[in-house]
Amino acid sequence: MTKTVPPQEGQTPPNADFTPTPAGQSGSGSMRELLRSNLRTSGIYVAFVAIVALFAFLTDGTLLSAGNITNLVLQYSYILVLAIGMVIVIIAGHIDLSVGSVVALTGAVSAVLVIQQGWPWWGGALAAIAVGLAVGAWHGFWVAYVGIPAFIVTLAGMLLFRGLTLQVLDNVSLSPFPAEYREVASGFLNGLLGGYGYDAFTLLIGGVAVAGYAISGWRSRAARVRYGQPVESLALFIAKVIAVGVVVMAFAWQLANARGLPIVLIILGVLAIAYGLITKNTVFGRQVYAIGGNLSAATLSGVKVRAVNFWIFVNMGFLSAVAGIIYSSRSNGAQPAAGEMFELDAIAAAFIGGAAVTGGVGTVVGAMVGGLIMAVMSNGMSLLGVDQSIQSVVKGLVLLLAVAFDVYNKRRAGASR
Q1: Any bridge partners for residue 174, and if so which?
Q2: Which of 17, 107, 168, 301 is most buried (CB neighbours < 10 A)?
Q3: Between vectors from CA 111 to CA 105 and to CA 112, what angle results, nearest 5°?
Q4: Residue among 367, 372, 340, 364 at smallest CA distance from 351
Q5: How crowded is the C-beta side of 118, counted as CA atoms within 13 Å?
Q6: What is the mean pLDDT, run by run of 10 residues, along the chain of 417 residues?
Q7: Which residues contact 104 (CB under 8 A, 6 or more apart)?
Q8: Are 87 and 350 in contact (CB under 8 A)?
């Protein structure tokens, strides 16, 4: 006698006929689901463009000037690096409150070795990364293998590593770094393709980035078509690629007419591409989403939850060290108070960029856009002479609204089932 097992929710019965929905011919319900699933991501891009347009108008175009755009990249790059790691932590359902202290500690270690001990600049950078990996392993052990909530572990880490920073620096600032170290955050690639009155190499890199985006988007769209999933119309896809291309090339043009391509932007671009691929196209990335989406189901599916959680925090320690190197290079020294409130900026970037407070949702690109929104608001308000206290109020309200939007979407989705 054969026992019939009812299909689980969201699964197709084994002997049921299944006909994939033709691309571009989805029913109204499928298209509604497509629009609803993309609302968070699309909304953040629209919000970013609107905020840039608003501050560009209020500052009479100063926000989008070549010099100011270059300064935006240099001043907020370390927050974007932290946001990449933080969004992965949040997707898995955790939080990390210690990254600001780790930025300070890794910068302090690098400064002591390079400035006081005479190490080469790259030796100090490698030592900082080693410290960041050790810190990440420390957090990962307590969270993954002991079972203490990440909030408590990293709160303790915030205090512990801030104290260690004071010990390493003996409560005094150290400066200056050698010129090679300062190039990490303040250097530029300029004139590599000859003199044209602008930096042609920067424009070339911008064109390559646009081409990469178009190819990646086309492959993703083709994959969805093969599996019968709803996709946007071809005209809409082309319009989106053109819009992104115009924005990227305008950005590249401004950089090309300033000081060229910042080295830190190359570092940031490599990290964004690498982690975008890791989260989307690797087993580890899918396991991170599975743990944050449904821990019990992930465990029953054979995901090694402890190992994944451990490496999530090791990765966060690594990226905190990278941010520490960039920040100390940018400030040309190490200070005991370095990195204060950086964790809040990184968390805000992840949530504004579409990460869910309950885990399982978020993207690297979204987190970076969220960080750019915070950067543009801070820079725009500074150009307008807005008091620092008012800036904090505005950023706090934006964060609150972003989380409220996430909660609203979840309630709406639950009510429609």
Answers
A1: 334
A2: 107
A3: 90
A4: 367
A5: 0
A6: 41 38 43 53 76 90 87 90 95 94 95 93 95 97 95 95 94 90 88 70 89 88 85 84 89 86 91 92 94 91 94 96 95 90 91 87 90 90 88 85 74 64
A7: 161, 162, 165, 324, 334, 335, 336, 337, 338, 339, 340
A8: yes
Alpha-helical (H) ranges within 294-357 are: 295-300, 305-331, 342-352
User: Are 77 and 277 a contacting pair, CB within 8 Å?
Assistant: no
- pLDDT reported for residue 391: 85
pLDDT at residue 3, rounded to an integer: 43
Q: What is the pLDDT of residue 9?
A: 38
CB 114 within 8 A of CB 121: yes
Q: What share of the chain has pLDDT > 90, as a percent?
A: 46
**Residues 58-89: pLDDT tens digits?**
999 888 888 888 888 888 999 999 999 999 99
Cβ–Cβ under 8 Å, residues 132 and 106: yes
Q: Which of 141, 73, 129 is nearest to 102 (CA)?
A: 129
| Residue in this structure with the two tokens 């054969």, named with its chain if needed | 2
